[in-house]
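Researcher: I'm preparing a figure for a lab meeting and need a structural model of a single chain. I don't have an experimental structure, so a prediction will have to do for now. The sequence is pasted below. Please return the structure as tokens so I can convert it later.
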Amino acid sequence: MDAIALNQVSAILDQAELRIAEFKRDTYEESFQRYLEDNASVWNELMQIGTRECSVQEQERAEVADCLARKAEELLAGAKNRTKRETMQMNLNLYMVSYFLPAIVAYQRRSGAKEDDMKKLTAAICDRWALSFKNHIQVSDYESIKAGFKQKLCFVTTAVCRGLHKPQDCRELTMMKQYRDGYLMNQEDGAAVIHEYYDIAPTIVKRIAKEASPEEKYLYLWNNYIRKCVELVEQSRNEQCREVYEQMMAELREEYLVTNRKSSDSGAPASE
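Model: Understood. Here is the structure written out token by token.
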């Protein structure tokens, strides 16, 4: 791939800050579709890698992965201090998994390209990213991410399960979804409760992800709340499950929303 094309690919990381600001329940769908269309020439260039000879394909996938990692390293080098660098790293990770990689998947599927070609390219990018930053980003598609905003009560549970490397269809997550749809939704105030979780959970999850050791928070939530909820559901103690889950959300709201707001009001920079 020539230098001009590689520069166009790497320059797309300059959009990270703007796109992450739009990674919200009410704006993600429109933002992603606009991102996909505005950068169609880049996705098309990447798709063309699959039309080359096998030896050339491997080389060009490596070139793309390298140019993205180098661009990210340049952006991080410009951060003024460690805190800003860590925040930028988390934002770049989130941008890659919520916009850049899903856009490659979406464009190739829409164009009828081979799934295997797309998987090889995204795998090369993820592997190079992990080598440079020790962050293991994973490929998802737009539909899955969009659906994640609709998981409502299970949004935090999903993040915890993924953080602890549990499968997407793990028993605990399945049971919490069944609890949401089969019990909570049928309560008099169930829809209102779910709507509140729907509004605040995505922000809480993003802020946990920005911590130095999010896996410690995931393990804490698992041991102190989610595992208890699952046990209560298994015992058909649905209202007690709700109480435990609401305790967890109250704690998270205080730690990641109220405390953050107070810091922002006092003049300190917000964490998001």
